[in-house]
Model the fold of this input.
Amino acid sequence: MDVRPFLLSDLARETGSEHHGEDLEIRGAAGIEDARDGDITFLQPRHPLSKLESCRAAAIILSPDHPSWEGPHLRHASPRWVFARALARLHGPLSRSEGIDPSARVHPTARVATTAAIGPFAIVGEKAVIDDGVLLEAGVFVGSRVHIGKDSRLDAYAVIRDDCVIGERVWIYSHAVIGSQGFGFEIHEGRAERLWHVGGVLIEDDVEIGAGSHVDRATTGMTVIGAGTKIDNHVMVGHNCRIGAGCCIAAHTGLAGSCILGDGVVMGGGCGVADHTVIGDGARIAGGSGVHGRVPAGATFAGTPAREHRSWLREMAALSRLPSLLRRRGKTKPSPPQ
Done:
């Protein structure tokens, strides 16, 4: 990847970090074990300085609670966040040329900003609107009446079906599909009759949707992904779901139709969420959980069926003791009556 070096003092100013020691040019970023001369790395607040004994990084990002360190370093309450900003400086979105590749097909009624870039073999449908700074990579499909907001990016072979709205600074990864038909059927006389989904999808600003993920269009109305939400690879969002702002949903999670997630919900990988489930603001769902019904705001749930995390831990501890209890019971089993 292309690299854009920067000065350690510039990163300190951007992040509000304390800068200690020499001002260096940072040319890379890596974990503690892999860092080399010119790199920056970080140490989590819970880890001791002894982890840095063999580290060769040029600069370290530490917590204010860490003991003193002689080499060049920054101090911030969230070292990993500062490290993320360093990565963004070094390897952020690449500059690209503007304009439409000759092999792309853009409908005559579509409106494409002069600062947008449309790559090879991309397709832009009837009455679509592509705003300033948008990047459509090779093979992207944008359907009719789609609106893509400023500075959004669609990686190669992403698909946006008709009548979807994509906000500003949205990043949709390769092979994601937005606005496909939802899984809706009515059983009539022993046959499954398709219930056509004629709504759309609204993806608000600053959302990321991972590779191979799917967001189905609503039956009527809109399926909504709230501002700042981050969705991992291979996530399924069913029709008419409404996901709040600032949520994080890890890979292989599936949300059935009409689920509601509040703001700031965090879901581990491999969760299954039944239709019409409501998950409150700030709730956390452990990976692999099966969720249905209602999850209170701020709660932490785990297991299948998902329940309050501490209850689940007690149940798992009790279950682990069951074999020995059964063995003891077998040894003391009363003799059958004569």
